[in-house]
Specification:
It is a single chain. This protein is of the alpha+beta class and about 80 residues long. It has one domain. The chain is built from three helices and three strands; from the N terminus they run ββαααβ. A hairpin with a 5-residue loop joins strand 1 and strand 2. Helix 1 crosses helix 2. The longest helix is centred in the middle third of the chain and has 17 residues. The two termini are about 25 Å apart.
Length: about 80
């Protein structure tokens, strides 16, 4: 029997770094649960002030700067023995 794997999303930087603190079930949750703050920390106060409370515009600009929403899979490595 094949199990359905949960779809998880994460924010990826222009350098290819994955930010585990943005791990969520949808792209919207990624952005709302830390994605905006993560990009703002990296891009600076000028970016934060320009896109604060501008949901769609902030996502579009982040994508132009190379930020991506990517699908990820979390799985256990090795066996767990008590």
């Amino acid at each position: 029997m094949k199990k359905n794997k949960p779809v998880l999303w994460c924010l990826e930087s222009p350098k290819g770094e994955l930010y585990w603190n943005t791990l969520a079930g949808s792209q919207g949750e990624v952005w709302g649960d830390g994605g905006f703050e993560t990009v703002a920390l990296e891009e600076g106060d000028k970016w934060r002030n320009r896109y604060w409370k501008k949901w769609d515009a902030s996502i579009r600009n982040a994508k132009k700067l190379g930020w991506k929403f990517v699908r990820v899979e979390i799985r256990r490595v090795g066996s767990q023995k008590a």
